[in-house]
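hey so i finally got around to running the thing on that chain from the lab meeting. sorry it took forever, my laptop kept dying and i had to restart like 3 times. anyway pasting the input first so we r on the same page abt which one it is
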Amino acid sequence: MATIVTRAGKGSALTWTEADANFTNLNNSKAETASPTFTGTVVLPATTSISTVSATEISYLDGVTSAIQTQLDAKQTLDADLTAIAGLTSAADKGIQFTGSGTAAVYTLTTAGKALLDDANADAQLVTLGLTASAAELNIMDGVTSTAAELNALDGITATVTELNYTDGVTSAIQTQMDTKAPLASPTFTGTPVAPTAAVNVNTTQVATTAYVITALKDAEVVTATNADISAVESGKTFFLSSATEFVSTLPAPALGLRYTFIVTAAPSGASYTVVTNSSANIIIGQQQSVAGDAGDFGTADDTITFVDGQAVAGDRVDVISDGTSWFAYAQSKVAAGITFTQASA
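ok and heres what got predicted. didnt touch it at all, straight out
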């Protein structure tokens, strides 16, 4: 407030200095009409306006703490979708959905629905639903042409998941496939049946394949002409003697476990069948029994076994077994003279 000098009552007049000071003080305490500069707290009347800005509009500045444009630039642009969401009333177990362009509504979220929404993928959702099939497995149903009635036939099935999984990989009607199979009891096969081949010398009710028969027959040989040296690899072999002429078969060197069988299938006529040791070694120890019961031959150090011409008959046989040093021979014949043990060399 400006300081003004006055005179009380009708005192002496103000001096020029005092008057000049009063004008100066009054001038300094007032604002210029053009571009005034105020200090302190400026109070405007409620109806004050500046240019085209009304007093009400000016009052909107009350409470602003920083640049208005900067604050406006940091705000979300007005959007119809956001306005639609802003107009909704939120509540527990509610979700938001758009019902159209710029319109939205809430819907109820059930416990089951929320359990599915937090699953990472379709397979996890199937587990939540209590299914053990994967999405890929369920997609197998895509393109199924079964009718609703046919699928409803599954209702009431008591088969377990494990049992139903047995159908995995089935490519056509199961019953049709089963009808083409042979029964276990008295089956009748067609075409070329195949079975496992049994081991050599197996004596069971197992099926004998052609491979087994051929292998078994390899352990037998029909002798119709001269049978030269018999090898150790032929151990266990049976030789059927059926020759029209004399022949000589030579045993291999003795080795533990070697064994051979000789059986007459055609009686020698005009010549004898003979079996000798290698190198004419006198190492055959044998005995002979005859069906007739007469005394048979007995050998202690011989080198030749003879199926005698005119005496040996079909069915006469000799089994020879080696202990690694000698050959032990056991002969059976119809008559004692049918088989003999002799020493051809001293």
